[in-house]
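job 3f2a | input accepted
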Amino acid sequence: MSTFETQIEQSKKEVAVAQSKIAELSARIDTARAKMSQGTDITLDIENASLDDVHAHSDLMNANIAELIMGLDDVTAGFSKDFDGLRSKTGWEKFVGIFSKQRAESLRSERVRAASIEDKLQDLIAKSNTIQAMLQEQLNELGHHKNQVEGNLEKTLVDREAAVTVLEEIKAEITALDPQLIELEGKLAVVTAPKERAKLEAELAKLNSRHNELAQLEQVKLSESQTLERYIEKGKTWMDSLQNQIATQMVLLNKLSTDTKQRVVLYDALSKSLKTAQQQDVAHKINEIGVATDKEAQVAMAAIGAATNNKMAEMMESHEEHIVFARKVLEEKAKADERFARRFEKIVEKHDANSYGEDSLGAPTGGAS
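job 3f2a | predicted structure (369 res):
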């Protein structure tokens, strides 16, 4: 198994681990929500819902996938050199051409026929699709958890609003009771008649009982509001994390998708280059045969030559459309590369400087092969 394929397998494992960590954290938050609905204390569940482990695995996964994508870029750049080599003669073919042009063309034709660039490119596109499938799966997983947490947050925000409303009502009632208590205590201080004192003491006891009841209820509702607030803050933090992870996945997907389009353009360019070379070879051979043939054969040759020229003309006419499309893809790639570079600046710097293994990021150190 090549280094590149090993990295792909490693990335699949890292995606699985990252997804398990995300699912674990979401499960803890869901458990807290369920306990909260039952009136159970959720402090421990919320405190245990740490993002650090999730971020560590997500960063490792994204760094490895970014390395894979840049490795695909390197391999693709190598294809361009291969394409150029097919369009021209090698040094040996030029040397042979000094003595025999026919032999030189034969050598080049054999080299073109034996070229495995198309297979390599198809393999590269297949690897791109494999990485894209991993990224899309992770993006879907993140979207699922985001929707789940978002739904829970909406319910919790409604619950906290209700709790705060009740708390404010309790505080308002306690505030209204305070002057009544002070007034009754003032009357008791000056009243001496037993019957009147007994009446005032009964009213005071009733108000004190209500005041104590409201004070206890205030503590309960305050604790409930604080619990809901902790859940909301943890939920918001998790939502922000999920949204950031989704943004990262989309940058990676956009870069990979644009690169794949470019590879398709390269594949098309290769095919047309090979076809053009073959047509030119046929035209040369027809011309050579024509010199030794009679007039009847020359008429046939002219017809074939006209057909060949017509085909060449059609290809040249379609060249403009091909170039416009290729330029559009290159523009899209430049934009995708810029977004990718901003998001993965450290990885790009390591890649360009070939400075792998000089920090503790933990990403695989091997390049694509």
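job 3f2a | Residues 194-291 form the longest helix (98 residues).
job 3f2a | closed
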